[in-house]
Amino acid sequence: MLLLAAAFLVAFVLLLYMVSPLISPKPLALPGAHVVVTGGSSGIGKCIAIECYKQGAFITLVARNEEKLLQAKKEIEKYSINDKQVVLCISVDVSEDYNQVENVIKQAQEKLGPVDMLVNCAGLALAGKFEDLEVSTFEKLMNVNFLGSVYPSRAVITTMMERRVGRIVFVSSQAGQLGLFGYTAYSSSKFAIRGLAEALQMEVKPYNVYVTVAYPPDTDTPGLAMENKTKPLETRLISETTSICKPEQVAKQIVKDAIQGNFNSSIGSDGYMLSSLTCGMAPVTSITEGLQQVVTMGLFRTIALFYLGSFDGIVRRCMTQRVKSEIADKTA
Ligand SMILES: NC(=O)c1ccc[n+]([C@@H]2O[C@H](COP(=O)([O-])OP(=O)(O)OC[C@H]3O[C@@H](n4cnc5c(N)ncnc54)[C@H](OP(=O)(O)O)[C@@H]3O)[C@@H](O)[C@H]2O)c1
Q: What is the pLDDT of residue 21?
């Protein structure tokens, strides 16, 4: 009897695996598509633009610094696969004024057609202990990382829904999946993206528009170099427990997931574990993904408890060290 039940269960799971591709979104065709990448002049955004361009897309790069934009355009154009492809540059601050962002998106659509994929990658990270961070840092990170993703998305969504086609990508961070020492401001701004993305996906799914949230780990970019200068010792030691990824690798995965319409995009085994652990009520794009989450949840939570223990240990040791050196300074 038990054997029969087990056989049924296995058959059921196999059946789900087989029908899974049938209920997944139809992949987006990149050749000839118009892809807008905010933060496309540097780091992960630039690599995403290159990856899309290599696959035949027309690109609009959005960032503030015009010189960096033109440099990125030249670099991306080396990867053209046909002579019709265009890289358009737009200089705007995505976080300042919605009307300005809407206008530049309109200009881009007039030149390169309706946006098929928007990648919200403009952003920055600033670390620091809660009591040391200026209140203005919280405002800045919320403005750029959160509102800077809301504005471009709001500017393209109506056309995408009318055309019944589109992809919106939000570049969050692993710090948007778990809160770590030093990231009270950064994590909040990246967690906010997740709420926006989940609610938006439920609204636009019937219109064949799919949302992807990417959770990159530490990635070797000019942005990470800047962030490293602000990291307290604890944050640095915790970050050092994982390796640093290459932006090309991260970009490849994000583009692949966006084409497939996957809600979640993560890198490597840590990323896979974190995404399964934190899936909560997030949308699933395939039955396979849902089944994997159900099966792995308990095991991953157990592993996570060890990670948390080790991070708490790092924080405790840093504090003990600090107290000791303060006492030594006073007695010297
Ligand atoms: N690198 C990592 O380790 C890592 C890990 C997880 C998540 N992320 C996220 O990935 C995204 C890209 O990071 P990155 O490391 O590649 O950064 P990056 O090398 O510093 O590039 C940031 C890009 O965003 C643009 N940008 C910044 N603020 C902007 C604004 N207000 N308006 C318009 N454009 C703006 C920058 O150009 P201008 O300065 O000229 O405007 C630049 O093109 C960020 O959202 C970051 O939080 C990064």
A: 57
